[in-house]
């Protein structure tokens, strides 16, 4: 995992069909994450099988959350386990940096 200061967080997320998340991180990297293995393997994520729950996401400043913050996935885990990863978008980095200033 390559990112400045070893801190990574989600700045954009969109739930998609078949339990995928489309993600963007603070360093500009974008990708897709497959939630199905977590849903099938861990009771904590079982509620996400319900599409009404899965599609009702929020960002808490670090990562994607569901059910009023009671379900989340660590941003580093999302970043390291994306199944499709797009190159870092340097324009997005500039935009994130400007919005934080």
Task: Describe the protein's architecture and organization.
- The structure is a single chain.
- The strands form 2 sheets. Strands 1-2-3-7 form a 4-stranded antiparallel beta sheet. A 3-stranded antiparallel beta sheet has the order 4-5-6, with no helix packed on it.
- The protein starts with 9 loop residues before the first strand and ends with a helix.
- It has 4 helices and 7 strands, in the order E-E-E-H-H-E-E-E-H-E-H.
- It is of the alpha+beta class and 101 residues long.
- A hairpin with a 4-residue loop joins strand 4 (58-59) and strand 5 (64-66).
- The chain has helices at 36-41, 51-54, 75-80, 90-100, and strands at 10-16, 20-25, 30-34, 58-59, 64-66, 71-72, 84-86.
- It has a single domain (7-100), classed as NE0471 N-terminal domain-like (2-Layer Sandwich).
- The radius of gyration is 13 Å and the shape is globular.
Note the beta-strand portion.
Answer: 25-35%
| Structural class assignment | alpha+beta
The tally of beta strands, per DSSP, is 7
Radius of gyration: 13 Å
Write a concise synopsis of the structure shown:
The protein is built from 4 helices and 7 strands.
Essential attributes:
disordered C terminus, 27% helix, 4-stranded antiparallel sheet, alpha+beta, 101 residues, NE0471 N-terminal domain-like, 3-stranded antiparallel sheet
Secondary-structure blueprint:
Blueprint: E1 10-16, E2 20-25, E3 30-34, H1 36-41, H2 51-54, E4 58-59, E5 64-66, E6 71-72, H3 75-80, E7 84-86, H4 90-100
Antiparallel strand pairs: 1-2, 2-3, 3-7, 4-5, 5-6
